TrEMBL record:
It is a multi-pass membrane protein. Keywords: Cell membrane, Membrane, Transmembrane, Transmembrane helix, Transport. The keyword S-adenosyl-L-methionine does not apply. The keyword Thylakoid does not apply. Pfam families: BPD_transp_1. This is N-acetyl-D-glucosamine ABC transport system permease protein. It comes from the Bacteria. The chain crosses the membrane at residues 7-26, 67-88, 100-120, 150-176, 197-218, 256-276. Belongs to the binding-protein-dependent transport system permease family.
């Protein structure tokens, strides 16, 4: 019997994929039905972990925080990135220089960026409050990370600041695919830059919008680095996200079963939102 030589390349990769992706996934799902402290044998509890997740107000708040965080980051990161890309596309002389400058924040370590912004947000002597005071806007000074009403938005702003350059770069790649003849024809017809942006640029940038929105959504729904570094999920669970809560359940509370159940919820949430988004955005591309 002759064996297809391609199997020699496929089988090792398949084995690695099963061992490090499929098996851990099924193991995590089975673990989510137990109460397990990391040592010994887990106790079967059925759906108790899931029941607690959807009835305990703390977990409801975690789910709410995660959704708000994702919406804020996705909207502002892509909105600002789209505006930056439109401006840079109209300035070819400085486009490459400014595009590189926008990517600089994303080159930093997440830990370093988190600690830097934690200092900038400091209520006493922090750079942001000092800047507001120097501009005569002392009334706008806040305890940015200590006020439960604005802490989540303050952390989300750092996420936007760090990754808006990525969105800008993807949108600029989308602009490169727009024929200059279309823009020239619109200009000859007297279409204003604002109308051109909304009625020509945005529709033709549909594939870039799909990529940016999908990547930003997946990244933010799993995010835990900035909330962990800057606030540890506080104050009063105001910045506790799904990713951070899973981390604390494992390494602080030693509730592996609950952490596994919350991980399953996060996977399902990410999958459902991504599928709905892709379905809508792809259908929008087809209509265009």
């Amino acid at each position: 019997m002759r064996v297809d030589k391609r199997l020699y390349f496929i089988v090792p990769a398949l084995i690695i994929y099963v061992l490090f992706s499929i098996y851990p996934l099924f193991k995590g799902v089975s673990l989510s039905f137990t109460e397990y402290a990391g040592v010994g044998t887990g106790t079967w509890v059925g759906l108790d972990n899931y029941h607690e997740i959807f009835t305990d107000h703390r977990y409801i708040k975690v789910l709410k925080n995660t959704m708000i965080y994702a919406i804020v980051v996705v909207v502002f990161q892509n909105g600002i990135g789209l505006v930056f890309a439109a401006v840079l596309n109209s300035l070819p002389q400085v486009r490459n220089l400014l595009r590189t400058a926008l990517l600089v924040p994303s080159m930093l370590s997440l830990v370093i960026a988190g600690y830097v912004w934690q200092y900038l947000y400091a209520p006493m002597g922090g750079g942001l409050n000092e800047l507001l005071a120097s501009l005569g806007l002392s009334s706008l000074q806040q305890v940015w990370l200590g006020d439960s009403k604005i802490a989540l938005f303050s952390v989300a702003a750092v996420h936007v600041w760090m990754f808006v350059g990525y969105s800008t770069a993807i949108f600029l790649a989308g602009y490169a695919g727009i024929s200059s003849e279309i823009k020239d024809a619109a200009r000859v017809d007297g279409v204003s830059p604002i109308k051109s942006f909304f009625h020509i640029d945005i529709p033709l940038l549909a594939p870039a919008i799909t990529v940016n929105v999908t990547l930003a959504t997946i990244g933010t729904l799993k995010s835990f680095e900035f909330p962990y570094i800057m606030t540890l999920g506080g104050p009063d669970y105001a910045t506790m996200t799904l990713g951070l809560r899973i981390f604390t359940l494992i390494f602080q509370d030693f509730k592996y079963g609950m952490a596994a159940a919350l991980s399953v919820v996060m996977i399902v949430l990410v999958a459902l939102i991504t599928m709905v988004q892709n379905s809508y955005l792809r259908s929008r591309e087809d209509r265009i």
